[in-house]
Amino acid sequence: MSLSLPSIAAAIIDLDGTMVDTVGDFEQALARTLAELELPPVDRGFIMRTVGRGSMHLLRQTLAQAGGAPELLDTAWTHYQRHYADINGLHADVYPGVLEGLAAMRARGWRLACVTNKPRAFALALLEAKGLLPLFEHVFGGDSFERHKPDPLPLLKTCEALGTAPAHTLMVGDSSNDCEAARAAGCPVVLVSYGYNHGEPVAAARPDRVVDRLDALF
Ligand SMILES: O=C(O)COP(=O)(O)O
Ligand SMILES: [Mg+2]
């Protein structure tokens, strides 16, 4: 599939690793959760390789990495949600070029939606804290639909909500999850080079284009 920008009417933008560098938030919330369970913290590299498949996946992997018993997962989840809500956005920065890129999309008349695997309540609070929320018509999280990315369902549902055909709705993300979901939904896809792609170069996912900044798309 080749990317034809003039045919695009809307964009679905991923959050963690694409708009906001949230590793610091994950690091803090996980460290506090593990400390409460009397377990050692995990390192930043592990978090960067593991993030992207939803908070429950991250927590399950983290618990295993820290040597915690799988039976601790429910308790850990309760702690994690409380800690994440407390620090959400405090250790996170909007990447360079994001505001400019989103403004350029809006200037072209594109409709914008955010689709993340983060729980929706955390995504809304983070977008609000970073001043990005007013740019989006819809925000959907990992708990908004029955299945999350890399399943195409969230993208198909978002196209329905936007009223745009998948072929005219550009997915912009940072990982192979975003790319797989887009391919299966029939959306063209651009990946940013700077996010979290499970430690792999994004080009390996074979998106329609790779950009180093969101505003480099135009
Ligand atoms: O797994 C996460 O919570 C991050 O997800 P995202 O990259 O889809 O925003
Ligand atoms: Mg991401």
Task: Write a structural description.
- With 218 residues, this protein is of the alpha/beta class.
- Helix content is 40%, strand content 13%.
- The protein has 2 domains: 5-21 and 93-217, Rossmann fold (3-Layer(aba) Sandwich); 23-87, DNA polymerase, domain 1.
- It contains 8 helices and 8 strands.
- The strands form 2 sheets. Strands 5-4-1-6-7-8 form a 6-stranded parallel β-sheet, sandwiched between helices.
- The chain is elongated and about 55 Å long.
- The model has no long low-confidence stretch (mean pLDDT 97).
- Bound molecules: 2-phosphoglycolic acid (PGA) and magnesium ion.
- 2-phosphoglycolic acid is lined by residues 14-17, 51-55, 116-118, 149.
- The site of 2-phosphoglycolic acid has 13 residues, from loops.
Features:
single chain; about 220 residues; alpha/beta; Rossmann fold; DNA polymerase, domain 1; six-stranded parallel sheet; two-stranded antiparallel sheet; 8 helices; 8 strands; binds 2-phosphoglycolic acid
Low-confidence stretches: none
Order of helices and strands: EEHHHHEHEHEHEHEE
CATH C-level name of the largest domain: Alpha Beta
Please name the CATH architecture of the largest domain. Answer: 3-Layer(aba) Sandwich
Provide a brief overview of the structure.
This protein is an alpha/beta fold. The protein has helices at 23-36, 44-50, 55-65, 73-87, 98-107, 120-129, 153-162, 176-185, and strands at 10-13, 20-21, 93-94, 111-115, 138-140, 169-173, 189-192, 209-211.
